[in-house]
Amino acid sequence: MKTSDRKPRVVIVGAGFGGLRLARELRRAPVEVRLIDRNNFHTFQPLLYQVATAGLEPEDIAHAVRGIFQKQKNFQFRLGAVVGVDRAAKTVRLADGEALPYDYLVLAAGASTNYFGAEGAETYGFPLKSLTDAVRLRNHIIRQFEAADRDPSLIEAGALTFVVVGGGPTGVETAGALLELFEKVFAKDYPHLPVEKARVMLVEAAPDLLGGFHEASKRHARETLDKRGVEVITGAPVVRVTPEAVRLADGTAIPARTLVWAAGVRAAPLADALGFEQTTAGRIVVAPDLSVPGRPEVFVIGDLAGSRDEAGNLHPQLAPVALAGARHVARQIRRRMTGAPPEPFRYRDRGIMATIGRHAAVAEFGGLRTQGFLAWVMWLFLHLVMLIGFRNRLNVLVNWAWNYFTYDRGARLILEVPPEPPHGGAAPRQRSGVRPASRIS
Amino acid sequence: MKTSDRKPRVVIVGAGFGGLRLARELRRAPVEVRLIDRNNFHTFQPLLYQVATAGLEPEDIAHAVRGIFQKQKNFQFRLGAVVGVDRAAKTVRLADGEALPYDYLVLAAGASTNYFGAEGAETYGFPLKSLTDAVRLRNHIIRQFEAADRDPSLIEAGALTFVVVGGGPTGVETAGALLELFEKVFAKDYPHLPVEKARVMLVEAAPDLLGGFHEASKRHARETLDKRGVEVITGAPVVRVTPEAVRLADGTAIPARTLVWAAGVRAAPLADALGFEQTTAGRIVVAPDLSVPGRPEVFVIGDLAGSRDEAGNLHPQLAPVALAGARHVARQIRRRMTGAPPEPFRYRDRGIMATIGRHAAVAEFGGLRTQGFLAWVMWLFLHLVMLIGFRNRLNVLVNWAWNYFTYDRGARLILEVPPEPPHGGAAPRQRSGVRPASRIS
Where are the beta strands (DSSP E) in B166-237? Predict the structure, then answer.
């Protein structure tokens, strides 16, 4: 603890892919690492849709941050929500009033949902960005089937119509998984219900699904979804959402009580509170080395960073970019401490992939392109490797594979947990007022 | 569906041990079974304390009711809260206004927490009767450590003092598990916190722990808890609870922000709403065959039933009694349909056991008594067999054993899920008003 007076303090905001990797990369650097997140766990976001569709349990894709860093001596975790940065004092301000000093600050707070101004979407749509979002959606989906089971007339009213908005990988994956849940599980769970009347619709504003993918991948995704029974509607922006219907730009109204909003992301709200220059969808403008222009001690990585490739295009908001950014910034901090000049961040695109459901996916790696079963196995393998890397236990593999292959699983619970302990004794109340920075470490 | 007009309808209220077993026992009986529960899952209550102390994941001890009965043709599940019974019309009234007709009604709604009038206990104490209770308590415990980690002065104020009230098996098990969580997991998770200052206190109003157990078992439990560091206080009723302290009858005030209330149970609130005669702690008075006196078509089983042994003592409120009651009532219903006279319910006590923590338990079977490691292995084995029987999948064994033996687990998440979908489209709103009974089936 004594040495913390000497060593530069690196404060990282966000325990997503970027934040976690950066903290880990700095494990042997002569710095003190402080990682802040509003949750005490890391969420493996690429598989949130599996939790929402009852394929995986919440604990399968989340891991306590403290558990990951138990053996890293120069690491400390801080549970809290960052509300601002005092650039003059070089402190990060937390919602509970505390001010955390930093020598280097790395913003890795990720992205939130972008509703593109669709009326009612934020109020009535279900986003899919957090573990809470996923469990809430799971609860809601099951409730619709329970409601229809006791009153089948609700089916006409849209109780079993599930509209997924957004034809990117998340939307495609969610639509495919919903249909499988209904056909493989709910058809048996609700023998008295005409489950075949359940509809899954995938609505996309652009003319195509999977924008950014190769023409052949797009076609394969669409054909696969068609064949499996997902109703795909493209070129159809959603303009209005109510609890009972989804209205498209052409005036069509779809009676539906569930709208999954997977149409896009924007920078985490924190980005708007900092006063840094922003670019498309709130991303923070960064210098080539990922630092904030004029603020060499502040870096931005991952979905929050408005970093660009050589052609001037914004990097995609994907986990690999965040991981590469983390490695880069770890290296820049080390260089900075030895007086070496900054290096520009370069992201080498390793490819993109999306799963369409069981035994179907598309994948593109440089010139290579594959689809169908092989692509699906690759997707499965890559996600398992990543997931196990984070959870660091073989057990997940067993559990995951079992759940995924057998559909014999316990995850379809309607589980509700009140957000605040309604009964006192709670920690995060007024108790912790502003206190001297020296108390933090 | 047509035959449902002919076959007697057995409505079972509650998907606990008794309700589930009864539904299953009736699978070949010429009846239609309707099982009602406010949750869509069965909770394996004996292991709730494991979820609260992050040893197991919620999904490990819960299973979707519909999944359990997928293959039972004469079974239907209804999600809902029973608020009353119309004895003249022979219908069960649900919170959403629907009235479910029955020919036989079996009340198996279980027990709720008994606060014995201790001031503030219901408001500030944490009960441990439902999965939500368990996750809420888990969230709260982790929050206390997070709060103390950022401000160690809170330790003096009771942030790391955990008072378990109730010296029965649940209290003993919870106290033991808390201490293990702190010593084996949190000591590593919070390297900057003096975790050894965390206190676990077990407070019991009676002079002894484990009332009902043999003198030697009581002694062993107390000695084991002492040795492991649980502070046991007996003969000390709790009279007042605030968010910051627990006050005992002798005036002692313990600064503590967490009170786990495991001091006792009373019949589920439903029992008070029915107008049937009640006995100790709200249990419904029953005839020797477990039917309600004067209401031969209404049965009560499990914790809700005020059934008695030959000596006139109330049966203990334990899972084995509920399971035996379920088998008995299934048989009585079958007999009733053939005109056979009712038989009295007899419960053969198979013994009692309680675990005190890793490698320590007490068990008593008739004249046989054992304690320590052997008793613990028996406890583990029995609970695994029961749990697997309900979940019906080997995977749980792997998961459970792995979690329990290695403590390398992902369950220590602060996971919150708002109780009602705040965004519309929700099912259980006003939508479903009262509708004709014929619509139900």
Answer: 199-203, 231-233
